[in-house]
Amino acid sequence: MGMGIALTTAAKAALPVMVFDKSSTQIDRGLKLVDSLLAKDVSKGKIAEDEGRMAKARIRVISSMDDLKDCDLVVEAVAENLQVKQAIFSSLSQICSPSAILATNTSSISITKIASSASKPEMVVGLHFFNPVPVMKLVEVIAGLQTSRATLQRARSFAEACGKEVVQSADVPGFISNALLMPFLNEAIMCLEKGVATKEDIDKTLRLGMAHPMGPLQLADFIGLDTCLAIQQTLHRETGDDKYRPSVLLGRMVDAGWLGRKSAKGFYEY
Ligand code: 3HC
């Protein structure tokens, strides 16, 4: 998602972007995706060849987070792990200017909790993009308890400059999107677990009966089963509400390393 956010920022908002990842494999994969998406847009006549080249040239890969020191806005998009995110926000507080906005693309972790590790929590905000970032039209902007109005407004303007529609959510578990999506995905997994129907028929019901672009099991594979599990665990832990309790099958699949598209096997094979 990080590279998707970088591409959208470079191509739609026409802003220079720096990208950092501790894994060079992830960077290489992301850059290949950027090349192929830009090439496709050029070949379809959606953008001129020059525009594609300029968008790519705005993306600079950096080898140290220290290079982020002059950025106006940083978007963290690491895995759903509070400790990892807090360590990053603590480092960013040392590196970045006090006027920089520190945003997180978290799917479910409290913005207020993440901000507690930053030296200026009023500058921390949730900017929740959706996958695939260049295609999905929405960004959910989330205010933590200490997020300032000015930070919220700047985050909103940034998302709009990226060509996105914005919704604003309070800092509740799962925000608007995942509080609604995760029980739905989990219910579909439990249908499969109980033998109500085949995976194909569960997905077909939602695709053809309700005009969803993907069925829920396809969508869970697309998001990543480990990500779905981590989100559901956070929601269940924070609310104690049984509707967020992850199904046993989802946990077992993650134990088996079947993580969906990214591991070539989930509910389906890829
Ligand atoms: N990155 C960028 N663009 C992509 C892409 C990717 N990974 N995959 C597909 N696209 C683009 C294609 O290039 C194509 O663009 P074009 O119209 O300009 O040619 C367009 O999307 C449509 O792609 P396809 O024709 O190949 O395939 P589909 O029509 O089946 O669409 C889809 C693919 C857009 C992924 C569609 O199936 C869809 O909308 N699925 C639902 C996605 C969704 O719900 N996402 C949200 C997940 S929840 C989330 O992210 C939040 C988190 O917190 C859990």
Automatic annotation (TrEMBL):
**Which pathway features in its UniProt record?**
Lipid metabolism; fatty acid beta-oxidation
The annotated site for Important for catalytic activity falls at 128
Instruction: Please provide the record's keywords in A-Z order.
Output: Oxidoreductase
- Domain 3-hydroxyacyl-CoA dehydrogenase C-terminal, which positions? 174-270
Q: Which residues form the 3-hydroxyacyl-CoA dehydrogenase NAD binding domain?
A: 1-171
Keyword Thylakoid assigned: no
Highest rank taxon of the organism = Eukaryota
What are this entry's molecular-function GO terms? NAD+ binding; oxidoreductase activity, acting on the CH-OH group of donors, NAD or NADP as acceptor
InterPro entries in the cross-refs? 3-OHacyl-CoA_DH, 3-OHacyl-CoA_DH_NAD-bd, 3HC_DH_C, 6-PGluconate_DH-like_C_sf, 6PGD_dom2, NAD(P)-bd_dom_sf
Q: Which Pfam families match?
A: 3HCDH, 3HCDH_N
**GO biological process annotation, one example:** fatty acid metabolic process
For this protein, the record's PANTHER family field holds: 3-HYDROXYACYL-COA DEHYDROGENASE FAMILY PROTEIN, 3-HYDROXYBUTYRYL-COA DEHYDROGENASE
Which family does the record claim for this protein? Belongs to the 3-hydroxyacyl-CoA dehydrogenase family.
Recorded protein name is 3-hydroxybutyryl-CoA dehydrogenase
